[in-house]
Write a structure and sequence with these properties.
The chain is an alpha+beta fold. It has three helices and four strands. The longest helix is centred in the first third of the chain and has 16 residues, at 14-29.
């Protein structure tokens, strides 16, 4: 199943994000090809990070919740909110 995970940072937490980045990336590496996309979101000027987005293939919602709970960014309290939704790829088709 595909999941869209949207994590919104607490305001003014760039130092926390920067100090946890290496362990966060190491955590993500454990999921290999299951992650279709992962990256930060930014404010309109493109300089300030506002959160993280993931598109990931996992077994079920429980696995998606465990993935999100295990993220080092979340463990240190970086995120103000985390939203998880199951999604379905329509375009491009895989014919």
């Amino acid at each position: 199943m595909l999941f869209h995970i949207r994590c919104k940072d607490k305001p003014s937490q760039m130092n926390m994000r920067a100090s946890t980045r290496a362990v966060h990336l190491k955590y993500l590496a454990n999921f290999g090809d299951s992650i279709f996309f992962a990256g930060p979101t930014y404010t309109d000027e493109g300089k300030t990070v506002t959160g993280s987005v993931f598109l990931i293939d996992l077994e079920d919602m429980a696995a998606a919740e465990n993935f999100a709970k295990g993220d080092p960014y979340r463990k240190v309290g970086l995120f103000e909110s985390v939203e998880i939704e199951q999604i379905r790829k329509v375009i491009p088709t895989d014919d």
